Amino acid sequence: GRFSRAFSISKAMPISSDCALLVIDAQNGFMPGGGLPVAQGDAIVPVINRMAPLFENAVLTQDWHPASHVSFAANHPGRQPFDVIELPYGPQVLWPTHCVQGTPDAALHPQLHVPQAQLILRKGCRPQVDSYSAFTEADRAATTGLAAWLHARGIRHLYLCGLATDYCVAWSALDARAAGFAVTVVEDACRAIDLNGSLARAWADMKAAGVQRASSQSLLAG
Ligand code: VGL
Ligand code: ZN
Predict the structure, then answer these.
(1) How confident is the model at residue 23 (pLDDT cuts 50, 70, 90)?
(2) Which end of the chain is more exposed for a tag (fewer CB within 10 A), N or C?
(3) Atom 1 of ligand 1 has which residue's CA nearest to it?
């Protein structure tokens, strides 16, 4: 019943203090009704809220673009959302305008509850460079400083969740592996955009990089 369920959650084995939950872009802009809606994006919020208490350490990210951002189709006359253009750092998908700095679209989902989060990292802030990854911007040169921040706190293993599986979650997972972290993606705490096979490609790339795939149930079962 209700009591035993609450009791079993409170008794769930906490996750080791050298682990951190990394919640990627759980923002209104990626939820149904947002600027770049991800199908069932809001379904991840209760899942994240259930597993968050297992973690002593948590970091949240926000996609945080200026209105003039190079990734917005609206800033490229004659282009449409989901067109791909060539930028100095490589191909760039043009997105609908989303997560503009300081707007409700860029705010975290109002029901997201991860009160122990120590850092909210904002990315994609430079007008001419996108950043799907929480670690390294799309020019592959600028770092956000997140790897150093986590290393300085003795974090060795990251559990990733959020939106979208095939863009910001996958790119963050791959960069986290490259930075030396063990990485687990909690699949049911993510949802994908899935543009031209991007989801299957993302899982293949993550598998090849040694990213583990888990369910929130398996974590809660300890
Ligand atoms: C994202 C596309 C553009 C994401 C952000 O959070 O996955 N995708 N900006
Ligand atoms: Zn974006």
Answers:
(1) very high
(2) N
(3) 168
Give the rounded percent of residues in the chain with a pLDDT score beyond 90.
Answer: 93
Question: Which value, in Å, is the radius of gyration of the alpha carbons in the chain?
Answer: 17
User: How is residue 174 written in tokens?
Assistant: 């791959």
pLDDT in tens, 160-211: 999 999 999 999 999 999 999 999 999 999 999 999 999 999 999 999 999 9
The Å distance, Cα 71 to ligand 2 centre, comes to 7
Collect all residues with Cβ–Cβ distance below 8 Å to 134 and sequence separation of at least 6.
22, 24, 59, 61, 121, 123, 144, 146, 168, 172, 175
User: What is the best residue among 31, 36, 144 to mutate for testing ligand 1's pocket, by most ligand atoms within 8 Å of CB?
Assistant: 36
Side-chain half-sphere CA neighbours of 58 within 13 A? 20
